[in-house]
Write a structure and sequence with these properties.
single chain; 155 residues; two-stranded antiparallel ribbon
């Protein structure tokens, strides 16, 4: 169902044909990179956090992880990921297919600076076996990003 919501969203922007649906899982960075045929760093990993009772999404490069001191400096609280069984109710997509498109209203999306070294990145498209290749400006536009932040470090 989430894949269909993302496909419907991109159909309105004449980009639906760019969504790739794979026979194999793309639910992790490594699996997504294999399915897409790119380096793991090019996978745009969408991470979901709780800030109080509200969800926030941060899209990062596939080869980085959240830097807790940077996160706390930016958001004035410790990073707390949404428990897996609650992700879909907060975001609208289940783990493995979380992406910054066709999400629940009111969920802010931030893009991490780690993505800026690439021309094209590959976020999921609402399911654990899909992805879409986007330029950074397309990602920024279609995620309705609140802005660019720096909250990651190398793994």
């Amino acid at each position: 169902m989430s894949l269909e919501k993302v496909q419907s969203y991109f159909e309105k922007h004449h980009m639906k044909e760019r969504i790739k649906v794979f026979q194999q899982s793309s639910a992790t960075v490594e699996l997504a990179a294999q399915a897409v045929g790119c380096e793991p760093a090019h996978i745009a990993k969408t991470m979901s956090f709780l800030q109080g009772d509200n969800a926030v999404l941060i899209v990062t490069a596939g080869d980085v992880k959240i830097d807790n001191p940077k996160y706390k400096a930016r958001f004035h609280q410790k990073a707390k990921m949404i428990p897996g069984d609650l992700v879909e109710s907060y975001i609208g997509h289940a783990p493995g297919g979380v992406c910054p498109f066709a999400i629940k209203e009111g969920v802010p999306v931030y893009l991490d600076e780690s993505l800026k070294r690439f021309e094209t990145v590959y976020p999921a498209a609402g399911s654990g076996n899909s992805a879409i290749g986007l330029s950074l400006s397309e990602l920024e536009t279609h995620s309705n990003a609140c802005g660019w932040i720096d909250v990651c470090k190398a793994k």
